[in-house]
Design a protein that fits this description.
about 35% helix; Endonuclease, Chain A; 16-stranded mixed β-sheet; alpha+beta; two-stranded parallel sheet; 20 strands; globular; about 20% strand; about 475 residues
Length: about 475
């Protein structure tokens, strides 16, 4: 076999490979345009106006307090504390929930006991995805039903299994709402399925499983009513019970926050045309980027998103423009699709080093191992911040149900980025010029650790560069999947 670039048959094969890959991606994009146009939602994919707020979502709410909680060790105990203090009700949405999952550091207080105790004095309502109807995905419906029975047995907990999804998709939201005054919106489920959600910012090496990097936003103020209304919509659809909502909530801070979501058309009667405002707000923000795009996500195989990134890299808005994406070392599905997209972005960067794809590994001394990047965070120009449950793939942007919150608070966006970068760069302070940090810290550290990994040497840092793949055909599974299962 000869090497590409020598005029050999391999080069011709690469050209065919690229043409096939590009053709499928264009077909999928046009398919989505037709689908959204058919349901009057095209502006989510092709917003005609400028600005960062989504027009297809409820308007942004002003007067909120928003705190970003990084990693399970910071988020899960805060959720448990809020649930314990409930005065009127507790509402939980989860992709998967295990009754014996422990949200605390001591592994001694399972979520069933926590919710059951509170349910003795106030209503506790839980919505969980009913599980995969096709037995090639997890969690399977039989396992979900068994978990529900364990959760409610001997308690006053109310739990509904929601099957109102498209055949090959899921309810992916992760919400905790207390008294309609406090809400958590993020990527953390109350389960150990596929990995340990309870992990610290240090991400120490685990001998008994894979660590989990994730995040959640804690919210107070008027935005909580939008979160509560979404839960009420799903509860009424599954339990046939209408929930009373507060008419308005008092201001709790000075941050404007918008509630965005993916709800495919036909999933719920009250949203017959669906809603795709997660897609819209990402498209608006990424198109507007002038200095920095920073993404943490489980997946990156949405052609609509990658096309914007590729265009930005081919024609950078400024010499200081940088794109950094943090992804899992090995995603639990769609891995080849993500790596193929990364290859495109590396090619668009054309050696300028304005783009970097990296991952983080758990590490203690010379021991290192996988760490699953599950956070769904977007930051643009230190001015726009999104956090929630939505992945940057076609499942989350078009077909699963998802919930994100978005703010255009520059101080919060910058503080969140600096906190994340301090964690990933293993330093106490990551303030200062973002471009300089990417050039002088992110690139050299990640590159060195990749070389050590390839040489079989112990890692000296947990930040590692992610290479793309050389063949476009390796990323066709995601597009083909979307074309087959989309409506």
């Amino acid at each position: 076999m000869t090497v590409a670039g020598t005029g050999s048959p391999m080069r011709a094969l690469d050209r065919v490979d690229a043409a096939v890959g590009g053709g499928i991606e264009h077909a999928m994009i046009h398919h989505h345009m037709r689908r959204l146009r058919r349901h009057g939602q095209l502006k989510a994919l092709a917003p005609a106006t400028e600005g960062l707020w989504a027009e297809t979502a409820a308007p942004p709410r002003f007067g909120n307090a928003m705190e970003v909680l990084i990693d399970g060790a910071n988020a899960l105990p805060r959720m448990a504390e809020a649930i314990q203090g409930a005065q009127r009700h507790v509402h939980v949405c989860s992709w998967h929930l295990e009754p014996d999952f422990d949200p605390g550091p001591r592994k001694a207080s399972p979520v069933k006991e926590l919710l059951a105790e509170v349910a003795e004095r106030v209503p506790v309502r839980v919505i969980v995805w009913a599980g995969a109807p096709v037995p090639v995905f997890q969690p399977r419906r039989g396992a979900v039903k068994a978990a529900r029975e364990r959760l409610v047995a001997g308690t006053k907990i109310q739990c509904q299994l929601d099957a109102c999804t498209r055949l090959m998709h899921c309810h992916h939201e992760k919400l905790v709402i207390v008294d309609d005054e406090l809400a958590f919106v993020g990527g953390i489920d109350l389960t150990t399925l596929a990995g340990d959600r309870y992990d610290t910012n240090e991400h120490a090496f685990k001998h008994d499983g894979i660590g989990w990097h994730d995040a959640s936003a804690m919210l107070r103020g008027p935005i909580v009513r939008d979160v509560a209304a979404h839960f009420a919509m799903r509860w009424e659809a599954t339990a046939d019970e209408a929930l009373e909502l507060p008419t308005e909530l008092e201001a709790a801070g000075d941050t404007a926050v918008q509630f965005t979501r993916t709800v495919p058309e036909g999933a719920y009667k009250v949203l017959p045309r669906g809603e795709f405002s997660v897609l819209e707000t990402y498209i608006r923000a990424l198109r507007s980027a002038q200095r920095l795009i920073y993404l943490e996500n489980q997946f990156l195989w949405s052609p609509e998103i990658v096309h914007i990134l590729e265009t930005k890299l081919r024609t950078p808005p400024s010499p200081d423009f940088r794109v950094v994406v943090l992804l899992p070392h090995k995603a639990n599905n769609g891995q080849d699709d993500t790596r193929g997209m990364l290859a495109r972005l590396v090619e668009a960067d054309d050696g300028r080093k304005q783009f970097l794809a990296a991952t983080i590994m758990s590490r203690s001394g010379e021991q290192s191992g996988p760490l699953y990047v599950h956070a769904k965070i977007g930051i643009v120009d230190d001015e726009w911040l999104a956090i929630g449950s939505a992945n940057l793939n076609e499942h989350s942007l078009f077909n699963d149900t998802e919930v994100d919150v978005v703010t255009c608070d520059p101080a919060l966006a910058r503080a969140t980025r600096e906190t994340l970068w301090a964690e990933h760069l293993e330093r106490d302070d990551a303030s200062g010029d973002a471009t300089r940090l990417v050039d002088e810290a992110w690139h050299p550290i990640a590159s060195e650790q990749l070389e050590r990994q390839r040489a079989g040497a112990p890692l000296t840092h947990h930040l590692v560069e992610l290479p793309g793949v050389s063949r476009r055909s390796r990323r066709l599974l995601g597009p083909l999947d979307a074309l087959v299962v989309d409506g």
